[in-house]
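Exercise 7. Given the encoded structure of a 578-residue chain, write a plausible sequence.
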């Protein structure tokens, strides 16, 4: 504006467009040399315009230089860093977790306009703009020297391509790279795992397939402990799920599997699940085709309505809500989720039916909503926002891989067994849900999960994904095989307890760290032996709850291919030791 005003005073006879052109030339030092007196406004513009040009160039050059310097230092000095491919929902949270632990993190993002790039840089990560499925980009990230790679682009196919390219780039690497691949389709994960069985003496990668939606479905269910307590053979449960995308489908399957486990293979009642989606009828057909036994445990009531439509509001007004135990709103559109929750909450009036609202992070709508609930607590006490990306359990499970998933399943089964025995929650610190469990008991479950696949391998078994969750459960060869595994589990338990300061005592004493079972297998009571044996027997059903199964190694070995050293027990990243 200063230049435009100045040129209008010096050249009043010229047109407005000429003044604009001369003003723009100030930025390149081409129009500021004017004889005679010069207006103050133009004089300021003559120096300010080129100064802004040089500052902009300096910023761009400096930023580019700094980025290249970081990559050069990574190539020259660094190793054992973490590479994160994709900065969508999940990637930035993983970047944050590792950066806060002091690890070097390299993030790869294809979209240069991604809003999370600056966030990751602010956390200390090195960001590379490019396609992680390209060899040159992976080489720039020094994937050959990395300790771990997370492929979390949000697209199964792209994540699989990243894995394929990584294996080419690091071919010949002596120490395996830990690869955590986000795959939503479990059948696809099995196909990739089959391709992972190499005909060579060592593997270049330790492969883990993770699914945050599967993890989040359990955490979302755990938001409502009162609902979990009502799952029993004689109860009639009615749950409403609004929006059947990845999260909604995972939640529906989890509820059905949980009902099957709680009520047996021939339940007295089925769990009723009303699904509301614009393609609800087609979704029901697809689910019942893919999971043939689903209708044996679950009565799906499809309602073809689009949220915010007049038909949906009319249906909500006419529906009888007296028998509903819980409502889960799982749409990808957060604002629609909250508006739907507020509408349903207003319609219910008595605030007795819990409503869980799926959101991504604990900010934006979720943060505003929590503040609102704090001010008007009585009106919104039944509303529960669930930010699945900010959920500590979901992210921990994602970063630790399947070991964390199995650990949580083992603990859930332990809780169910102890409750059936009549153990009071208040009398035993181990009788807490996973999110409230002390670290010692969490680590105990993690250690058991870590050794589960190791012990199974001694009997010629391994663990893979179970994409057909209603298939027949695995059966051991004979009773002696179960006993042998129970003995290995007892040895594992004794070693863990001993390493944490426990010793033998006549009775269990938490303060003195004494336990009567800290003896060799032969000296155990028959009751303690049977406890371990029954727990080994329950492994197939426990793993089935998290879409895993036990199979003989011979089923994976075909065409001269050999089984990897351990499909599920690659070295875990214990962040607390970093």
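Solution.
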């Amino acid at each position: 504006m200063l230049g435009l005003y100045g040129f209008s005073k010096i050249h009043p006879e010229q047109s407005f467009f000429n003044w604009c052109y001369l003003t723009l030339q100030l930025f390149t030092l081409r129009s500021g040399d004017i004889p005679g007196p010069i207006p103050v406004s133009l004089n300021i513009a003559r120096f300010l315009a080129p100064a802004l040009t040089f500052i902009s160039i300096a910023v761009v050059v400096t930023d580019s230089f700094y980025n290249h310097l970081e990559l050069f230092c990574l190539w020259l000095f660094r190793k054992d860093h973490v590479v994160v491919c994709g900065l969508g929902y999940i990637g930035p949270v993983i970047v944050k977790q590792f950066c806060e632990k002091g690890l070097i993190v390299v993030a790869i993002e294809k979209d240069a306009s991604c809003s999370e790039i600056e966030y990751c840089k602010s956390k200390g990560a090195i960001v590379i703009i490019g396609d992680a499925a390209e060899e040159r980009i992976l080489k720039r990230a020094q994937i050959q020297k990395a300790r771990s790679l997370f492929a979390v682009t949000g697209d199964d196919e792209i994540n699989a391509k990243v894995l394929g390219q990584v294996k080419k780039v690091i071919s010949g690497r002596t120490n395996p790279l830990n690869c955590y691949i986000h795959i939503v389709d479990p059948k696809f994960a099995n196909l990739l795992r089959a391709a992972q069985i190499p005909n060579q003496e060592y593997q270049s990668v330790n492969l883990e397939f993770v699914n945050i939606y599967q993890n989040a479905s359990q955490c979302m269910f755990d938001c409502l402990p009162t609902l979990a307590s009502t799952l029993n053979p004689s109860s009639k449960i009615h749950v409403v799920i609004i929006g059947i995308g990845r999260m909604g489908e995972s939640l529906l399957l989890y509820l059905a599997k949980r009902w099957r486990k709680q009520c047996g293979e021939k339940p007295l009642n089925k769990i009723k699940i009303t699904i509301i989606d614009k393609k609800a009828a087609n979704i029901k057909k697809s689910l019942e085709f893919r999971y043939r036994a689903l209708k044996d445990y679950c009565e799906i009531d499809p309602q073809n309505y689009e949220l915010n439509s007049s038909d949906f509001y009319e249906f909500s007004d006419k529906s009888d809500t007296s028998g509903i135990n819980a409502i889960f709103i799982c749409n990808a559109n957060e604002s629609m989720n909250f508006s739907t929750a507020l509408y349903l909450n207003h319609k219910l009036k008595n605030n007795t039916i819990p409503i869980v609202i799926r959101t991504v992070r604990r900010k934006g709508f979720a943060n505003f909503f929590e503040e609102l609930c704090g001010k008007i607590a009585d009106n919104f006490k039944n509303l529960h926002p669930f930010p699945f990306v900010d959920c500590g359990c979901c992210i921990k499970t994602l970063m630790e891989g399947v070991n964390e998933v199995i650990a949580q399943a083992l603990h859930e089964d332990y809780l169910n067994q102890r409750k059936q025995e009549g153990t009071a929650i208040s009398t035993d610190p181990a009788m807490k849900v996973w999110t409230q469990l002390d670290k010692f008991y969490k680590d105990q479950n993690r250690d058991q999960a870590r050794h589960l696949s190791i012990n199974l391998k001694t009997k010629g078994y391994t663990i893979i994904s179970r994409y057909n969750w209603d298939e027949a459960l695995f059966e051991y060869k004979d009773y002696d095989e179960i006993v042998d595994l129970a003995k290995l589990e007892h040895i594992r338990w004794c070693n863990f307890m001993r390493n944490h300061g426990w010793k033998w005592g006549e009775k269990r004493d938490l303060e003195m760290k004494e336990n009567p079972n800290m003896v060799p297998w032969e000296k155990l009571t028959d009751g303690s032996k049977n406890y371990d044996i029954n727990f080994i027997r329950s492994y197939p059903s426990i793993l089935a709850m998290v879409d895993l199964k036990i199979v003989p190694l011979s089923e994976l070995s075909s065409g001269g291919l050999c089984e990897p050293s351990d499909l599920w027990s690659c070295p875990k990243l214990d962040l607390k030791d970093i």
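Remark. Residues 360 and 388 are 6 Å apart (CA to CA). Students should compare their own answers with the one above.
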